[in-house]
Amino acid sequence: MLATMLYAPGDVRVEERDEPVIQKPTDAIIRLTATCICGSDLWPFRGLNDVSSPMAMGHEYCGVVVAVGSDVKTVKPGQFVVGSFVLSDNTCPHCRHGFQSSCEQREFMTGGQAEYARVPLADGTLIATDTMPDDDLIPSLLAASDVLGTGWYAADAARVQSGSTVVVVGDGAVGLMGVLAAKQLGAHRIIAMSRHKSRQDLALDYGATDIIAERGDAGVARVKELTQRIGADAVLECVGTQESMQTAINCARPGSMIGYVGVPHGVQFDGQSLFFSQTGMMGGPAPVRRFLPYLLDLILTRQINPGRVFDLELPLADAAEGYRAMDERRAIKTLLRP
Ligand SMILES: [Zn+2]
Q1: What percent of the chain has pLDDT over 70?
Q2: How far apart are CA 149 and CA 145, in angstroms?
Q3: Mean pLDDT of all residues belonging to the chain
Q4: Which of 36, 69, 180, 271 has the fewest CB neighbours in a 10 Å radius?
């Protein structure tokens, strides 16, 4: 089968590899219907994470089950499934508290940018749909695997509620999904920080009421102007840099919450400024599995269309071009068809 391997920064190859097999009784093997490239895949692609040996890329996936291990009870061959990018048993104390991304048996999905993939902890990770979904829903179902679930978690963690004024820092796919989530959760005002026309347009379509193109202190000043100097009730931090994190903290009013889902790279906090900011922070890898049944229902009943974040679709064999397009910001997010 074809699979996407990262050999070194900038060196993505789609090559012939052995098909995965059941290794544990809790595994499932799926044939990918669609997969995609994540913003976080760009960290090793850009050399910002270590690549010491070839990495099997891909953690966002949906497809049809072709085999299950002897302990798997909730999914069976022939079913269409979507799963979280974090693999969880969905039974341990952290899972029962809704933090499946800190599962005691947690693993991170790998090898999804391929024709077939092994999904460990299938019962606690995968959700099967009742019927085979229409093809036009596939991009949205795929988005639920990570970016939609992560944007949703950012909004949930920031406690967005009816009437909230929300700031979304970051206009990548996750930030755009954060806008969608804030809208669904009833936010009254959604201020999206974005410098790119195509992303601004999508943010407006997903429910943003205001766009701020400025960054850093200038961006914070614009947020303050728009909120009568008060700041936001909820801030979604969807980037993970020092500047974006500081922007998020500075946009947040005292008593607010910041949901931070951009993986921090080189971010440091100052104790005193955090102390005096009087904001709460909740973040980390999104417990997508908590939201997945609800999100799949919203998609299958066509109440949301998160799949529009995919603005480039390529055959799996052209994955390397998909990486370059995202690295050079020619594409928001690349969908790959095996
Ligand atoms: Zn667990």
Answers
A1: 100
A2: 7
A3: 96
A4: 271
